[in-house]
Queue: 2 jobs
Job 1
Amino acid sequence: MTHPSSIESSSDYLCRFPFEKAEILANGDVHLCCAGWLPQVVGSVRDQSIAEVWNSPIANSIREKIGRGDFSSCRAELCPHLTSLQSGEPPAAWSPLKRRDLHLQAGHQRDLLQTSEFPREINCAFDATCNLSCPSCRPETVAYAAHSAEARWADRLVDEILDVLAKSPTQIQRLKLSGNGDPFASRAYRRLLRSLDAKTHPDLRITLHTNALLLTPERWAEIRAAHAMIDTVEVSIDAATSSTYRKLRRGGEFSQLMPRLAWLAKLRQGRSFRRFILSFVVQRENFREMAAFVDLGRQHQADVILFSQLNDWGSMSPEAFAAAAIHRPTHPEHAEFRALIESSSWRHASDVWLSNLPRASTH
Ligand code: SF4
């Protein structure tokens, strides 16, 4: 297997995300991937419909570049798929990066580069409502009041998604809830989940990204008709002890999380969904708990124990972010962090993904 010498330009690979995926943020901005990884905004759904923004000239120009292997619009140091590739690791099964020659052989090239009229995958990040206020994400709790302008606007987007699904049941193939906030704290997302029925949309798949504290058996029962669509549940935790959890999941309690994890593990074992991910954003406050987090994930039979670097979402002061960003080589404790990973027994384990964390190249 060959790997690109410069990740910014490799005609060996292409990425399917800009051809299939839209992320819609709370301010209306739309991105063709995770906003942190592909920062260029392709339009705003405050002014236009999702379909109009999706087919905008700027969206098509990004696709044209990435379709020919030019990744200069992507932040290679943040995109976990480019980071993995740059470290010499073959793309994971779930990676959107595809080798162009394999796709040519498989005859998939045309499909992959063909853009549909509406995104096939939507990362819903348009309702910021959450039960927690994690310091890496926001300085205080956000909850859209019923009938507020923000709530009405989130409802308008949910209506547009439901409308597309009603008119064209196979158009959207995946919904991710939520890329911002929590799906079970948001009225709009709960309404969306309650409106979905696996019998009507057998091809639609749902990823739930949640802190799980509000994901009770009662809330799960509320969305019974959607159960068969939910194939992935990712729980963001960032801690392996209750004191760290209290600091990094402000407003949450580890003692409340543990029964939720045990219950979700049972659902996973009973094949209620296919992929159970426990995630951990690594920062100064928690990096010494990484090994314990791997143990926690294994105790709950997680399919993926996901580590990623701290992203600067503008919620921390520059000084606070610099103090927390252990992944930066300039951080005073960075060498200890690197040594901890390099000496670990789990760094290459099949259930652990270091995503965009720095590690020694395996070239
Ligand atoms: S290469 Fe990474 S950042 Fe670029 S579009 Fe694909 S997933 Fe997004």
Job 2
Amino acid sequence: MRTGAARIVGRRAIGRSIVELALAVPPAFPEPRPGQFVHVRVPGDALVLRRPLSVADWDERERVLRLIFRVVGEGTARLAALPVGAAVDAFLPPSTGFPLSAVRAGETALLVGGGLGVAPLIFLARALHARGVRVKARIGFACAEDVFGLRRLRAVADVELYTDDGSAGAKGRVTDGLGPEAAFHAAFVCGPVPMLRAFQRMFRGDGRPIYAALEARMACGAGACRACVVPVAEGSALRHRRVCRDGPVFALASLHVAGVPEDGSPDGGRGWADGGGFV
Ligand SMILES: Cc1cc2nc3c(=O)[nH]c(=O)nc-3n(C[C@H](O)[C@H](O)[C@H](O)COP(=O)(O)OP(=O)(O)OC[C@H]3O[C@@H](n4cnc5c(N)ncnc54)[C@H](O)[C@@H]3O)c2cc1C
Ligand code: FES
């Protein structure tokens, strides 16, 4: 069973419209892997579609998973308003997650996250650290009020913090000063599409494994409706792959990032399917 009635066992505001929910999941709920997301049913008749949210952390012993999300619309507002004790119907699609085997014990993993893209990196950093990997994390936010995950990340990683306005950490972007000379064996990135584009340009032709977790507007979340497809290069062919089932994690070099919609909608109003060439 990949779905089930989870129960909210913790809820707190952790920033400007950012909420953390702790969900205790039933015994039959599969163990999530870093990079995977849960598809959560939102209470209320009008909202038929579930909302995808990354697993930000997982406590194996307590069987509690954590979600960190920004309230951006009705669905996230309703989820954020649920009280501790409320039941939530959560489904774990059999998505890819980050390939932990890309980096071995004693090697270095570079994690780069922007905004809410930092959420899945917390779980990833803990999992890599537990395998003996040295974890370096660069995380960026708009301003100090948006910063989250710092304490948990610092427990397992060397962390560099950036804010756009310099109100916490260094002023600048997570990609500032990064380049092909950066020392890492594998990199994992999650953040807004412009950040992925910058990263892809910077490491074009770099032979090291670099993976990106993508967002897309989703409907079924189970691989059936193709609402979430993005263009992915496979050899010389460009294929449409489902973010919910074939992703959300892809090799960065394979992504036709120029064609990935910035707002997660199927064409982002920009007709990515017509876009030519790889960035
Ligand atoms: C695999 C995956 C993991 C995600 N993990 C997180 C997470 O850990 N934390 C988090 O805060 N958000 C995450 N998101 C985005 C989150 O799913 C959306 O913010 C949420 O579904 C919005 O629902 P809503 O009803 O509140 O907003 P709506 O009323 O549906 O939309 C409000 C605004 O949010 C935008 N939006 C809606 N859905 C998406 C989406 N899927 N991707 C990008 N923009 C969207 C809309 O374009 C609109 O501007 C993730 C998305 C995906 C696909
Ligand atoms: S959301 Fe239906 S196939 Fe991905």
